[in-house]
Amino acid sequence: MTRGRFIAFEGGEGAGKSTQAQMLAAALEAREIACVVTREPGGTPGAEAIRQLLLGLDGEGWHPRAEALLFAAARSDHVERLIRPALEAGKWVICDRFVDSSRAYQGGAGGLSDSDVLALHRVGSGGLLPDLTLLVEVSPETAAQRTRARDGGDADRIGGRDAAYHARVAAAFARFADAEPARFARIDGNRDAEAVHRAVLGALDAFGQAL
Ligand code: T5A
């Protein structure tokens, strides 16, 4: 059995990651490639329960180290129970956010060191990395316009942090992509969804995962 491919979408709130994950899944299914679309935090019952703890608005919130541990615990359950078994069964896994989100939010923006975030990932998930990470980048104006149109100003605990925090997140993602060009493709997400989807297919092609 050939192992499946592991593709992650990364980027800030409102970049269009979930939309593109669904469009990629439809393109794979049209080619009779079995795939699973999943998300973080979440993807398994245990990880979805941790998602509520992380993103719900009750309580006083978490300091950055506790937040990083909770994301790593959710990811560990997700990798163990869903991602690895699917890959081993030959399915492609399309994941809406993965460890690079922890590196960007709890690390780059939250103040943890990258090596600490990666150490948690090594313990929790055996250091699993996607075969390809598609970083969907949009301007702050585009992100705000899309999330306002959809959520009418409501945001979760992390999405509602200030503009400076989100600018640090975006800068961290860009640094990771530049440092690891063999694993990342940067996608301009400011265009309409079809144009972004074509760019996603082009990036897969360039990485030797042609559909
Ligand atoms: N987090 C997560 C961490 O801090 N550390 C971690 O390790 C992890 C895994 C997750 C939060 O947790 C943080 C990051 C986040 O703050 P979430 O709800 O899962 O929260 O958050 P997001 O990933 O931010 O979800 P969003 O739905 O806001 O963003 P998407 O998925 O990028 O955007 P999408 O596809 O839902 O689109 C948003 C809207 O725009 C429209 C869509 O229809 C939708 O209404 N749209 C477009 N409109 C025009 N043109 C396009 N090209 C469009 N693409 C989408």
Characterize the structure shown.
This protein is an alpha/beta fold. It has a single domain (6-206), classed as P-loop containing nucleotide triphosphate hydrolases (Rossmann fold). It contains 8 helices and 5 strands. It is globular. The chain binds P1-(5'-adenosyl)P5-(5'-thymidyl)pentaphosphate.
Features:
5-stranded parallel β-sheet, binds P1-(5'-adenosyl)P5-(5'-thymidyl)pentaphosphate, 5 strands, 12% strand, Rossmann fold, 211 residues
Topology:
Layout: E1 6-10, H1 17-30, E2 35-39, H2 45-55, H3 64-88, E3 92-96, H4 99-109, H5 114-125, E4 132-137, H6 140-151, H7 163-179, E5 184-188, H8 193-206
Parallel strand pairs: 1-3, 1-4, 2-3, 4-5
Bound molecules: P1-(5'-adenosyl)P5-(5'-thymidyl)pentaphosphate
Strands ordered across the widest β-sheet = 2-3-1-4-5
User: Major sheet, described briefly?
Assistant: 5 strands, parallel
Low-confidence stretches: none
CATH class category: Alpha Beta
Give the topology string: H per helix, E per strand.
Answer: EHEHHEHHEHHEH
Question: Roughly how many Å apart are the termini?
Answer: 19 Å
| Helix-and-strand structural type | alpha/beta
Give a nutshell description of this structure:
The protein is an alpha/beta fold and 211 residues long. 55% of the residues lie in helices and 12% in strands. The protein has 8 helices and 5 strands.
